[in-house]
UniProtKB/TrEMBL annotation, chains A, B:
The lineage of its organism: Eukaryota, Metazoa, Chordata, Craniata, Vertebrata. This is Anoctamin. Its main location: membrane. It comes from the Eukaryota. Belongs to the anoctamin family. Signal peptide: none annotated. Keywords: Membrane, Transmembrane, Transmembrane helix.
Length: 643, 643
């Protein structure tokens, strides 16, 4: 469905070429701008062009440009990006164009490269289109491009290009969703197919979601047993706490192994982000990159560190302070209102409404602060001027993550450590688990679905009476969908879940069971969101889940302290200690001892479980050995001066 | 002095060839054995020979064989071992024979390679001499060599070769010791010259010794101030404890950087132990190494792990138990004797002598246990069958280290945590610091020196009436010295010092000052030991101090807990807590809080201080990039099947 339409066309492309990526100019598009853009995207690399196959899509508005690539440029870009592909003996080898005969299928890019890879490579080529001399943008004389400035990103920034998105392939998506939904109740997903269609990062997300859900099952079974058999021996907290601490380590360690296996099979395990091309927003005076020797902007890392230390971190702390102040103010106000309501015996209706006021105000405050903070974090991270996209994303993720962590968990920590009220903690946890998850799913999925159903979007207005060919029409309507917001919120949800399970599940053993049920529907809603409610996102090569791995592991360390503390304050254990004639000081010492033992155990486990399965470790060492040998045999490249 | 003697010789070597390594056969040596050995060592690589220059040293006994190498074989071995050397632009590049023109001085091995490197390369070539067919050893028909069996190691095992040692070069050593001793009081050492003469591992040891001593200076100054100004504000423990915790992290983090810089300059930073040749003792059915593709013995790692888990670790625990039992029995006996002595009012002299009995018996017991354990650890590690020498050494070090750690510190921990007697701890520490260090130095240096001075060694007997040429004579007498025992005990001493400084110096602030004084003499005794009292050790390539880095870091983590505990039980802090009206439970909670903060701080510092300086990081990335590029350009090597 998404191949070139067989209508006769001025470019004389054969009808078998599949459009991979679409660019949509702002309506009304000027003919000279479009002509110039097409010529640049078709142009030769030497002249700053992208060397792509470009088709001025025959839509009514004349705003659409469809992109594809020749097998030659796809394979060239595969080498430049350093993707590994199965060689003829089955092991994954970093692709090089010279050795292409060693890679089965390399003459047929559609079999050799997945859809996601081809779209990534086209995006990479598009991003690399630059002007060589200072030029005004045809049709927009006030906009000037300077030598080396990326064309497509600049036109996007100026709003001349409105949308830039990869295209769906209906048949492939149909097969994918069928395979996905048919086994969803067994938490089985066609991960490799998802990755082929949406790229590595999306593939890893769904793989992690499934892995995490399955890892919750033993805890869920244990929790249900605890709950329904009403087991109440005095050390039940102790057992569940130790279980959840070890569970968090095991889950993350085995995930690392699973993830490395996936990354190897997908050819991204050996990707070196240091050798990546700089991201579009990276600026600085042009200089030779000391590592790769390529000409690119240069911004010294000490300046970046200074910006992070002196500006970003203080600003983050201001926001954390604001969040904390909000919480304490809310708690104060809430208590004050409760007390005065009781004093006045709740006479009027107005007073009853007032009871909900602090809670509502606080929710509003947090929501507002969240939005402002997210914007500030994005601006700060952009201003920190990170060289590669992955560093940018990691820094942004860490910023938002810390803030959300405080927002999500500070209340629970306050109840645990300061108020020491396990009854309240249990109540709060159960309401959070049920209410917030329902709200989340409605917010994430039902709302956008309804909005789309009833065509309330302003974006679709001027296409309503479209007379385009059906295929072009579907390309345009894909562009009308909102851009995919990224995986941050999805991971954040799992992060919060992981926190509930590892930090507090000994207080409320049903946690894991509720999370398993939630996650099965989560797979469904997330996949629906991805396939139907948003533009197809550009694929992103990834070998792991990035900072999220660290974030989950840090949460696992927090779990030790929290669980040990919960044990000491639990009434059952307190009673037990009194029975044995222990002073509070002694029981505290035992808790510290337990904490130290558990942390040591966690560290030992993390070391004892290798991060890669043995066979994979051998494969990696083989690759290292070959590159070491190759280096010795190759002519020495002059090292560049280190600045 | 150590070049070939100018007496006419059947091999017709020019007199400028320097002998690097000596082999001494057991006296009386059989002529046919010696002739065969020389032919094998001279023989071509293809025929299993070592391709060395061999000189049957003209000593009276006819037991000596002197080894040297041609420039060609030295450079070939440099490539095989993967040493990096300065290329013409000054950066360190892994040497390859094909590109030798890019390495300045590579045509003059004596300038290009250090003495230690040349001796290492000769040893490597010697170790690689093998027989191709099953052969009896000439002169020893009962000894048969099998195909692939290393000749020199086997003859050593059977006692046919008595000694195998690298030779000193008098002039070079003279220059080295002059430079060493002239600045010793300023803790300045000619580290690069030490490394050129003795190899990387010895160079790194002395570099670490100096680095550690300098890092102790600030703590020593603070400690002396505390001691002599009798500062006694209530939180002095607190300040000193925090200082020593942060000090331990800073020291090890900055050492890592320093060490990486050294390793880069010495060309060992990129050495990959995985690609090393297996050690001589490694056995197993011959197979292809899955990484390098070379034929070598193969022993699956799961079997090794099983042996470690099921045999080595339980045995270690038995010994740890014996050590612990010894300590408790000693403490029990000591108390019992004290009490009964006081009850009988110490009437007889015999009773007074009995007072010292437990202490003496305990010392004897520990000494005996130590020796047995060391032997058991060596046997176990050999039996675990590690593939490379570095893994073998690391495993052996860890085994002995854990045992010694328990022996050295369990008493102090017992006094701290169980008896909670800071007064006794202080007394014990000061006596340990002064007495044990004096004993150590006498034991390590004075004793061997006196033994040597008065020629009490049996080994020198049959050379007394030697009529050898003076040079050959000196070669023989070098062989008469005992073999260098390795760096384990030297590192162990520093490890114990590091423990005293980081764990307990808040109790006895003079610790650091005493250690500084001790270490300055330690540099002197260690260097004297190395240069004069023992055979020159074979050099060993090293990029870091191996497991010792980890051991010091683990001690740093122990330091947090111990220091926090000492603070809570110190009378001054206890009083302070009472003044503020805190319950013991609350003050304990504060101590836990402090511990958690300090550990977090340590982790943050360890992350914030990069392990390599920025310029070095860039150099390493350049190298990685080049090898990545080289890999892509090289023809694909068939990967071997992974077993």
């Amino acid at each position: 469905m998404s191949s070139w339409t067989p209508v006769p066309c001025q470019c004389c492309y054969t009808s078998s070429i599949q459009s991979l990526v679409a660019i949509q100019l702002r309506y009304p598009a000027k003919a000279e701008t479009k002509r110039w853009l097409v010529s640049k995207l078709e142009g030769r690399k030497k002249e700053g062009g992208a060397h792509l196959l470009v088709h001025p899509g025959e839509d009514d508005d004349g705003t659409l440009v469809l992109l594809s690539a020749t097998p030659y440029s796809l394979l060239q870009a595969t080498e430049v990006l350093g993707l590994a592909k199965p060689s003829s003996d089955g092991s994954m080898v970093t692709f090089s164009y010279n050795n292409k005969a060693d890679f089965p299928n390399s003459e047929k890019p559609e079999a050799f490269l997945t859809l996601a890879e081809r779209q990534l490579l086209v995006k990479y080529a598009t991003d690399s289109a630059k002007v060589l001399q200072e030029t005004p943008v045809p049709g927009y004389p006030e906009r000037r491009l300077y030598p080396g400035q990326p064309i497509v990103q600049s036109l996007q920034k100026w709003g001349i290009i409105e949308k830039f998105y990869p295209l769906h392939v209906e048949e492939e998506m149909h097969l994918l969703t069928e395979a996905w939904y048919s086994q969803i109740h067994k938490i089985r997903q066609p991960i490799d197919a998802i990755r082929s269609y949406f790229g590595d990062s999306v593939g890893l997300y769904f793989s992690f979601l499934g892995f995490f859900t399955i890892s919750l099952v033993p805890m869920a079974i244990l929790g249900v047993l605890y709950h329904y058999l009403s087991l109440s021996f005095p050390d039940k907290y102790l057992l569940f706490a130790i279980f959840s601490v070890l569970w968090s380590t095991m889950t993350m360690e085995f995930w690392k192994r699973h993830c490395a296996t996936k990354a190897y099979a997908w050819g991204t395990l050996q990707l070196k982000s240091h050798f990546e091309e700089p991201r579009a927003g990276y600026w600085g005076p042009p200089a030779l990159n000391p590592i790769t020797g390529r000409q690119e902007p240069y911004y010294p890392s000490w300046k970046r560190k200074l910006r992070i230390m002196l500006v970003s971190i203080p600003i983050i702390f201001v926001f954390l302070g604001l969040a904390f102040d909000g919480m304490t103010m809310y708690l104060y106000w809430e208590r004050w209102i409760q007390v005065s309501y009781q004093q006045h015996h709740g006479s009027s209706r107005l007073a009853a409404v007032c009871l909900y006021l602090p809670s509502c105000m606080y929710t509003l405050y947090i929501e507002l602060l969240n939005r402002i903070y997210k914007w500030v974090a994005a601006v700060l991270t952009e201003w920190e001027n990170h060289r590669v996209e992955s560093a940018f994303q990691n820094q942004l993720t860490v910023k938002v993550l810390v803030f959300r962590f405080i927002n999500c968990f500070s209340g629970l920590f306050y109840i645990t450590f300061y108020m020491q009220d396990l009854q309240l903690l249990r109540k709060r946890l159960s309401s959070l688990l049920i209410v917030s998850q329902v709200i989340n799913q409605v917010n994430e999925c039902l709302l956008p679905f309804l909005l789309q159903k009833f065509q309330l979007r302003p974006g679709t207005a001027h296409h309503e009476n479209s007379k385009d060919a059906p295929v072009v029409d579907s390309f345009v309507s894909e562009g009308d969908l909102p851009a995919y917001p990224g995986l941050f919120d999805d991971y954040m949800e799992l992060f919060v879940q992981f926190g509930y399970a590892s930090l507090f599940s000994c207080v409320y053993p049903l946690t894991a069971a509720l999370l398993v049920v939630n996650n099965i529907t989560e797979i469904w809603t997330d996949s629906f969101k991805l396939c139907r409610l948003f533009q197809k996102p550009f694929p992103c090569p990834a070998a792991n889940i990035g900072v999220w791995q660290v974030a989950f592991e840090v949460l696992g360390i927090f779990a030790v302290g929290t669980n040990c503390f919960i044990i000491t304050i639990s009434p059952e254990v307190k009673e037990l200690c009194l029975d044995f004639g222990m002073t509070p000081e002694q029981s505290l010492l035992y808790a510290i001892g337990l904490e130290h033992i558990l942390i040591t155990l966690k560290i030992v486990m993390a070391f004892a479980i290798p991060d890669q399965p043995h066979w994979l470790r051998l494969k990696v060492l083989q690759m290292e050995y070959h590159s070491w040998e190759a280096l010795k045999q190759s002519a020495i490249k002059r090292a560049l001066p280190v600045s």
